[in-house]
């Protein structure tokens, strides 16, 4: 029972000392936010030998109610470095190193980076980054503590590769709920639908036009519910101009009133023409600019105070009248147009983007979404939402308070110490029982009695988890993501090296996006795009999956899955160059493929040489050298990358 | 990207927590006054979690000087501050966390002298917090605060064990923030204005459009009227059979002459919602037992010049319930979201709000009559004016928490829960301290002293158990473990208990959420917390 309480800064507590002492260990903390600040303080005072801190963000005013390593004068500075400075001031002897960068995309954070540490602690606020660190820790066999908090609730869960559930073993409820496109564009019924629409609208008007996720906001006549209305669609074809195209024309003379009428009158009239949609719904009522200015009506939502005389609330929490929202819309559109023009100017001379990015903490951005969402809500007879609530709904704002973070961090650091005490045993005992004195901890501080902390026993991994069940090593390919194209990936890596014919290539980042589909013909435009345009990043795993029909028995199909891990490097300058980091994995894959499909493999001698070649190189330096040689000698380059005499002939 | 001007720094700084306790909670916190005794790691962690969210002011009482040990566990001291006043340096660093918070310190005289002199005014505080205070001092302080009726939070960390004990004479919880609130719609005891409005709607003459947007609550009430007529009943459908009949009637109302056959096969959204919400809308309206208990409380029945205003409001609500309310509480005046158009929704909302305002005015009148009758000061009445509305809205959830006094704790009760044993065993360490002026295992001169300390500790245990010597094996182990800790302060345990204790202080200051009743023990060995009553 007391074995775990072994190591400590106090001599009284280290009598039964076993395992690794905090002083000798190094910890990576990902995130220097609410929990991150608390963690760093506790880790430092518990005398952890070495600490690394990754954070992408800069300090904001709304951080100051809990992120105590920061002061008002630090607003705008990187969290990671300010946090480290604050810690050093109190504990001058500590070795603590800041990394200001995105854990998802920064090439510094590759496998060798993670391998420097004994333990990784997540103090993140989003699912995507958590999933990424989870994956990296699985690959590097590093123990991970995932900590988090929402309001009065929090958790600290332990993840050990192959022994416990990993972060992805249980499907997470989607953090950002997605809504059907038709609901957003045609038939909103809740305030959130209008808010999502307003955020889309912002991107259409001021956002990144190149972004494929930038959704159109005009009525969608492809609505399945509108199936019988085809004739009408054709007659109204001219309405199907997207807002973006329309705005491009309009931007020249830029008239906010005209934008207003297009969005809240013309588009709505068009929507009402899709009669099928309104059979059992209330039809939206278009409103023209002139008339809207006169609507003093306040349409209120269900919660909170309603009588103004007894409403001591801040203006932001109040519902305003439609005419107020019209004014707010016009003002914010003007403000943003000005800013957008300025941004484009700045972009000419700097590396800054040419477009605006919506930010919940920016007043004009928030006013625009509040006004647009409420005007649309009015048209559709939906309850209005105050600016305060819009901010929380549109910005995915998670309530946060210092007390919960302090508790979560306190527990997490204690968990960290227990893991370190267990580390030596972990290396030769791979069962769950070696760590079953550890638990997952969940907290909720608003509870009346008991249950403030709940310890839940660790659970075995989910056998079908895509991230951790298949512990086969991925094939690691080192490329320059901003040069390497999808086409090169497909032709050179997947077809040539993995010997796959036409697999589904799925991006295994939890999004379920498919990069290349086995069923569809490739879009040439798409194939010529570089990988970074798909927001693929360092460490992204691609799951290549293909079914092979068995020639002798049509009913038998073999399923083949290969994991491909992309590693980014700036040192490769040639667009076609790539490095297979660990060639022996390919050898293994080939062996297993041979076992699966004994017939298809015979005349592969020269290609075998090729792979064997890579196999011989034990360390990466040699391989890099080889690439350098390859890139300067075109002949050899060709023999390596254009060798299409496939080792295993795939059946077409 | 350029940023437009910031509307209100404070609003932004506290944005994330306003979403938990609201503006009024924040206002209460900003006028809150806290006294901390003991600026050790635990004490400063507690204050940190109160200063960051914007507490009004704090006073640190601590006469000790910073030692090298402090630097190892306390984030708010620094090796360069050794031998300086611990109260002063921690006060300075803590106020730096948030310029809005006012902090003062008292490093002379010591807390013991302050209590002995009995000149220091503890009644200025909303809550007094102690961090690892020795038992003798705590007992005197606890007695003193019990008489003053000032809440006391006793926080403690001891190796891997942490405890919090709340002593409060009487604490009022105004907003419980319960997850499972059923809307106060009273379809079984409908408001007259609501009945009139429903009766003004004739199903048969509704246009198709109106029928499509009929709010589900009206659909339910219309159905109920028809059902009651059919069954010659005044109640809600209760048996399964009755509920089935109710649904049948609802289905009949669904049809409208303007719909074609195609329409009839589809379910309408508002009718769908009506069906779905039957369990939460068709509920019997009654007087909750929690408020019934408050009505029967002696403080409510025997108002006096000294009684807290809380009881005056409760008494006023009681009078309302007995008279105008016809056995029910004032209407809450909230209507849940429903699928309908704006105009219909506002119409219904207004009906409930108007009734809520009317009810509240009546309570207010009772309240002022009571204040006059008991000669309460007029300025109190002004403060109280806002209160009545909040109380009426939360009437169904109002609660009073009264804990036992610390001085009446009985350690002899033998415990079944292991975490409770820890609390008892810590008390033994306190008794050890009383005797030897140090904790068992603390300041060890050599290995053998650990053994003698343990023997002494067991001796004290036997004495307390009135010589029974039936100490269980687990208790032996606990004592050994505590001896091993030697009263050491672990930072991560201090951070955790600090967070928990600050949370309890915020509950006490804001009168939101229910505080612990009355002792919490955290066990870092097993990562578990138990809350129990002493």
UniProtKB/TrEMBL annotation, chain A:
Biased composition (Acidic residues): 211-225
Chain spans, region Disordered: 211-239, 628-652
Residue intervals passing through the bilayer: none
Entry keyword Zinc: yes
Gene Ontology CC annotation, any one: cytoplasm
UniProt domain THIF-type NAD/FAD binding fold: residue ranges: 23-465
GO molecular function, one term: ATP binding
Binding site for ATP: 31-36, 55, 63-66, 79, 125-130
Domain Ubiquitin/SUMO-activating enzyme ubiquitin-like: from-to ranges: 477-552
UniProt entry tagged with the keyword Transmembrane helix: no
Compositional bias per record (Low complexity), positions renumbered to this chain: 632-644
GO biological process: protein sumoylation
Quaternary structure annotation from Swiss-Prot or TrEMBL: Heterodimer.
Protein name: SUMO-activating enzyme subunit
Origin organism lineage: Eukaryota, Metazoa, Spiralia, Gnathifera, Rotifera
UniProtKB/TrEMBL annotation, chain B:
Pathway(s) per entry: Protein modification; protein neddylation
Signal peptide start-end: none
THIF-type NAD/FAD binding fold domain: residues covered: 14-532
Alphabetical GO biological process terms: protein neddylation
Alphabetized GO MF terms: NEDD8 activating enzyme activity
An example Gene Ontology CC term for this record: cytoplasm
Record keyword Iron-sulfur present: no
Record keywords: Ubl conjugation pathway
Top-rank taxon, per record: Eukaryota
Classification via InterPro entries: APP-BP1, ThiF/MoeB/HesA, ThiF_NAD_FAD-bd, Ubiquitin-activating_enz
Any one Pfam family match given in the protein's UniProt record, by short name: ThiF
Family, similarity comment: Belongs to the ubiquitin-activating E1 family. ULA1 subfamily.
Protein name listed in UniProt: NEDD8-activating enzyme E1 regulatory subunit
